[in-house]
What we know:
With 238 residues, this protein is an alpha+beta fold. It has 2 domains: 17-148, no CATH class; 163-237, 3-Layer(aba) Sandwich (Glutaredoxin), CATH 3.40.30. The chain contains 9 helices and 6 strands; from the N terminus they run βαααβααααβαβαββ.
Amino acid sequence: MEGRTGRTADPYADTDVIDARAPRFNQAVIGSLALLAFVLELEWLPAVLAAQLAVGLVFGRQYCLPCLFYFEVVQPRVGEGHVEDARPPRFANMVGVGFLGGATMAFVLDAAAVGWALTLVVAALALLAAASGLCMGCEMYRLSARLRGVAGGRPRHPQRVDPAELGLSNGAGGLVEFSHPLCFECREWERRLESADRPHVVVDVSARPELARRYGIAVVPTVVAVAADGTVTERLAP
């Protein structure tokens, strides 16, 4: 996968992860155009933005014009940023589609005030995420993952694991990291675990997806401390 751009992740094939700069670039574009739509009263533009986000979500990043521009023009020049879990920014895009789609319907129904309010919410949140990295849609995803785990009986952070299944077979417990080979933060946690004075194991969720499903792992890295009987005694990340 690594080519002339020094990529560790193919942006069109490794869709479970993403260069962290790409969502911020996309948010800058969407936020700026949403604000432009409000300033110039372009009621058709939120519909175009909603359609573009939806096309990218359904058909892939190669059909998302801001994503394509980032990966083909910007990334080769600035290099690859930190590689992170793609699910939170994907969910944020879904939220954007919902708000911009709602704005479009409001304009069709001659409720321009509602349409512009929804458009400005998208502009404000997208530009905030682009400027600061604080992605409210991503935070909503993480919160919803926790809530789904509690409500569905399968905890977002496992309450008990099988130590032998995960490789902690010495009966003393230890630390478990659910990781992905293309996750930058996972590499940081692996270095911390190497220096920790406790047994530890790294579970690659790309190679062992059944374990990720069984223990309800929605975001990597997930790092937990496990007692000898498999009880999770502490959550270290996220």
